[in-house]
Design brief:
The chain is of the alpha/beta class. The protein has nine helices and 17 strands.
């Protein structure tokens, strides 16, 4: 945390009170947006191993809060909302890729503030084990069917380009195959000698230069258009660390806070049923 945050935190916040409220769900809807960001940053500061699910009332509020949290140097993970797909159009590919990237970071043990809208928090997602099964592992100095790998990428919706520029793309230039996984922060550059993977490294998509060598890497096969049934589905909460704290940043349409609605759902022992056929991303 920055020295600016530390000084303000020590002056205005009661650490014992924050530690107490960090153990349960809470509502900050009565506070202005800037104060909400400050309290969330303070909570993340006091409980660095805790995950806070911050539910904003809408996309604009979510984006503004992300900017405020960045100013406080708070660890945050932005989870985009997507519109329901129609027969004519799938969700925005970039937003879907951002959601996949966020889920990958959560699966890796992210701790801090997870920013989502109330709607995004209830949108259907594949169960974590379903998503884990949609991955390819690449290991340096091992043998793999390179042509088979390229077929798997195309079947998963990756597009072949002359040069990789965005997620969901791959390129082939002689012995070099570049892959930008749907859920990755940076693309991979792989180099092959016949069927042996002899070089594996991340590279910068703008400069097209290597950033760091790797021994192993994973490529996500789940991308925009991934679908399933309600039996495969869950919501964002299933990806969060055990004991996460829900922070409601606004009221809900029912007049109850999201925490109160959640309590009512829990008392019934179930959530409203999901649709039988779903497009997750």
């Amino acid at each position: 945390m920055s020295s600016r945050f530390e000084k303000t935190f020590q002056r205005w916040m009661n650490p014992f009170t924050l530690k107490e409220i960090a153990q349960r769900s809470l509502s900050l809807g009565h506070l202005p947006a800037s104060a909400q960001a400050f309290v969330l940053a303070a909570l993340a500061r006091l409980a660095p191993k805790q995950t806070f699910l911050a539910l904003a009332p809408g996309v604009k509020a979510q984006e503004e809060l992300a900017n405020d949290l960045e100013a406080w140097d708070a660890p945050q993970l932005f989870f985009p909302q997507v519109e329901a797909p129609t027969a004519e159009a799938l969700p925005d590919p970039e937003a879907s890729a951002e959601r996949l990237s966020a889920l990958s970071r959560l699966a890796s043990g992210f701790a801090g503030v997870v920013l989502a809208t109330a709607r995004a928090g209830e949108q259907a997602l594949p169960k974590p084990d379903v998503l884990r099964g949609q991955r390819l592992k690449l290991v340096k100095n091992t043998h793999r069917d390179r042509d088979g790998l390229l077929r798997q990428l195309q079947e998963a919706g990756y597009t072949r380009e002359a040069q990789v520029q965005g997620r969901g793309q791959f390129s082939v230039r002689g012995a070099v195959v570049d892959i930008f996984s749907w859920d990755a922060q940076r693309p991979l550059r792989t180099e092959w000698e016949d069927e042996e993977l002899i070089s594996l490294r991340e590279f910068d998509v703008d400069a097209q230069r290597s950033v760091q060598p790797l021994k192993t890497a994973e490529v996500g096969l789940a991308g925009p258009g991934l679908s399933g049934t309600s039996g495969d589905a869950t919501t964002l909460r299933d990806y969060l660390a055990k004991g996460f704290v829900t922070v409601n940043l606004g009221g809900s349409a029912s007049g109850l806070t999201l925490n109160e609605e959640q309590a009512e759902e829990d008392s019934d022992g179930h959530r409203p049923p999901l649709q039988p056929d779903l497009t997750f991303f």
